[in-house]
Amino acid sequence: MISPSADVYLNLAAEERLFKDFDGEPVLFLWRNHDAIVIGKWQNAWKECDVAAAERDGIKIARRITGGGAVFHDLDNLNYTFIASAREYDVGRQTDVIRKALRSLGVNAAVSGRNDLTVNGLKVSGNAFRRSDGKGLHHGTLLISFDGGKMEKYLRPSPLKLSSKGVDSVRSRVCALKEIVSDISVSDVAKSIAESFTEEFGKASYMKFVSEEYLSEARLFASKEFILGKNPPCALSVEFLSPCGLTEIEFDVVKGAIVATKIYSDTLDEELPTKAENALTGIPFTPDSIRYALNRSDDSILCEFGNSLAKALSTQIFGKKK
Length: 322
Prior knowledge:
The chain is α+β, with helices and mostly antiparallel strands. Helix content is 36%, strand content 24%. β11 and β12 (257-265) form a beta hairpin. α4 crosses α7 (186-201) and α11 packs antiparallel against α12 (300-316).
């Protein structure tokens, strides 16, 4: 299905409905948006972008249903979504659809890190994922061209994240396809992806995009509460990097015990934030207690996360005490 709309909320709603209603052959959905900031499921909008500047300039802010980091969309950014049953869902296979499509246009991309496609070490595509109810969703972006000034104006990446990438700005680690193949276009890329998809998965039937069917979900995606969330005041917060990604945790501490936590992260792990929030509530606010609480399970990822968090707390909060 190819979206004729450039409304980020309507497109996210259509994607959500396609995933929710899916019960058949693999789906490819291609879409693009007018200027918008799209943040990951677990991220804090206030930390990831300049909310005031975006609202003042008419830049929409949206929250997607997958993890990962914040990205800036415009009409020169093509988004693709794969949806498939658990039996056919294969991130490597789906990524190869994109790589083969790009290769046919003269762009040789490589898989890099957790979820990127790069050319000469520079990011041309980022991906995120979701699995539930026996099916999976894999979506990503492709930068055909982009406005680096807008990207730097509206996005606020953590210095900690940038330093971990060895760069000093978002702009310095991304590359547009037009910088590689000067006459490439959005329509060229869309056509090539569709051809690569049918070559990999077999003959495809086209679905019509009917805007009216997605209006209810679009209103949810456009709501302030969904986008900005409820950010209660917190007494203490810590930011750190772990194998799961960049994370910030806000702690509400009363009489030395954690009564509530809120986790913001660009993690691609769909369950980690909820698991960690549940494990941390009601325990003493000390690095050792936190490490123990997150190491009690046989979940190795949660254990690594707990070790990274305890180390960050020891340095950033408890190390400051006299």
